[in-house]
């Protein structure tokens, strides 16, 4: 359920909002810029210590550290969603943007609490169950994003309901997460945790201690992992790796940001979008993530990235094909099926690749920083996808060809440093054989 609660807000500020803005007559450039709010998910590590240490007055004592943060975040999301259902996007665009930003911040903060709750729900001797918890969280996320994400498209559909009505329903669904959170038990690990209470403004010593702790935290959790990564890899290889992470899924992000706009402009209905882009993609992603992991296990992580990157680029050309032939449902089904497969495959390879780069002494921090770099690059750069299609005069065929070509620079970088990566992969393999 927490995984569903994590994926659901992406519908509120992503696909549903995109479709609503498109129907309201907003430009592609404006719709694309709304993607900037997703950067909150990339930088939420900056305020993650607050979720660990700050007590929420009245609530923490009754619910515990994790559940109190979850309830507050979910209530904020529900309230902002309800407000979205009360505005006129054509007259109050800045209000819509502010509410979307509020949802993004609350949702990104909720993700911190959810990850902490999941990890602390298992004791040390139940460490093997962490993988099962992660699998359930992933399946839940896609259920919230794709499964529940189909609801607003079916609500609007051909009925008399408007997008404002759909957002009222979505707000009510968010309140169900609050009810479920109140029914859960607080993990024992957080019940004995030492908490920080915000000091009074007159207590200078307390504020000084907080500042010192912040500097110490930044040094140990940001500077040290970054410095170790560059020292271990060398500046040339390290920069190539970071640039690869930044660029690898840019084309997919450009396509994803404009996909709903494209579907509606080419002539697909809300019901078709809800069925294929949400319900079908939901199951395709879960199934092919497992199959993709098996293929990458056989081929190796580096080869898996090459294969996944080329397949991902080729799948983008299917959308160029749809732009040529028009709203043919069979073409839509083929494109969604193949794109879901290649996207899941490349994502599995990409996550494994980032994991391969992490030093065991800084696993969590280095993984979070590298993943955040990839997410931040995709969200910021893809926000300009609307400007690109507008600059092309609405030529969707050329746009999708360009998104297919966007993966080539990252694969060229990967080819240049392949020997280093093969050696690293082989070293990990030999160590795992020895440990086994």
UniProtKB/TrEMBL annotation:
InterPro entries: AcetylCoA_trans_1-like, AmpG_permease/AT-1, MFS_trans_sf
GO cellular component: membrane
Bilayer topology term: Multi-pass membrane protein
Gene Ontology MF terms in the entry: acetyl-CoA transmembrane transporter activity
Transmembrane region(s): 28-47, 68-87, 93-114, 134-154, 166-183, 237-255, 275-297, 304-324, 330-355, 367-384, 396-417
Subcellular location per the Swiss-Prot or TrEMBL entry: Membrane
Main location: membrane
Gene3D superfamilies (alphabetical): MFS general substrate transporter like domains
One annotated GO biological process: acetyl-CoA transmembrane transport
Keywords from the named record: Membrane, Transmembrane, Transmembrane helix, Transport
PANTHER family: MAJOR FACILITATOR SUPERFAMILY DOMAIN-CONTAINING PROTEIN 3, SOLUTE CARRIER FAMILY 33 ACETYL-COA TRANSPORTER -RELATED
NCBIfam families found in the cross-reference section: 2A0125 (TIGR00901)
Name this polypeptide is given: Major facilitator superfamily muropeptide transporter
Organism from which the protein derives: Idiomarina xiamenensis 10-D-4
């Amino acid at each position: 359920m927490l995984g569903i609660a994590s994926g659901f807000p992406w519908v509120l500020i992503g696909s549903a909002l995109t479709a609503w803005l498109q129907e309201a007559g907003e430009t592609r450039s404006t719709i694309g810029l709304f993607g900037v709010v997703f950067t909150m998910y990339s930088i939420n590590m900056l305020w993650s210590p607050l979720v660990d240490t700050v007590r929420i007055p009245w609530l923490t004592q009754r619910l515990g550290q994790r559940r109190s943060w979850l309830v507050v975040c979910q209530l904020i999301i529900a309230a902002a969603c309800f407000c979205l259902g009360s505005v006129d996007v054509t007259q109050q665009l800045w209000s819509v943007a502010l509410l979307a930003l509020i949802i993004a911040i609350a949702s990104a903060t909720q993700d911190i609490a959810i990850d902490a709750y999941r990890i602390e729900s298992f004791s040390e001797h139940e460490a093997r169950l962490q993988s099962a918890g992660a699998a359930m969280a992933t399946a839940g996320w896609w259920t919230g994003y794709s499964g529940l994400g189909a609801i607003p498209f079916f609500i609007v559909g051909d009925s008399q309901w408007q997008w404002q009505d759909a957002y009222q329903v979505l707000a009510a669904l968010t309140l169900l997460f609050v009810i479920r959170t109140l029914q859960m038990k607080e993990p024992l690990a957080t019940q004995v945790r030492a908490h920080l209470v915000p000091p009074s403004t007159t207590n200078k010593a307390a504020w000084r201690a907080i500042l010192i702790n912040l500097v110490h935290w930044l040094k140990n959790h940001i500077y040290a992992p970054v410095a170790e990564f560059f020292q271990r890899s060398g500046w040339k290889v390290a920069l190539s790796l970071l640039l690869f992470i930044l660029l690898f899924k840019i084309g997919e992000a450009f396509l994803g940001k404009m996909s709903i706009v494209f579907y509606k402009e080419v002539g697909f209905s809300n019901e078709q979008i809800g069925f294929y882009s949400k319900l079908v993609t939901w199951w395709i992603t879960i199934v092919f993530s497992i199959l993709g992991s098996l293929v990458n296990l056989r081929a190796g992580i580096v080869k898996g990235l090459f294969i996944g990157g080329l397949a991902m680029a080729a799948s983008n050309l299917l959308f160029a094909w749809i732009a040529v032939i028009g709203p043919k449902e069979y073409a839509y089904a083929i494109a969604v099926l193949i794109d879901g497969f290649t996207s899941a495959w490349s994502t599995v390879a990409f996550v494994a690749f980032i994991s391969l780069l992490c030093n065991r002494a800084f696993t969590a921090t280095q993984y979070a920083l590298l993943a955040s770099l990839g997410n931040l690059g995709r969200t910021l750069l893809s926000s300009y996808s609307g400007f690109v299609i507008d600059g092309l005069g609405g030529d969707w065929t050329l746009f999708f060809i360009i998104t297919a070509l966007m993966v080539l620079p990252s694969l060229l970088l990967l080819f240049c440093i392949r020997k280093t990566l093969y050696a690293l992969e082989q070293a990990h393999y030999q160590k795992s054989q020895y440990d086994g």
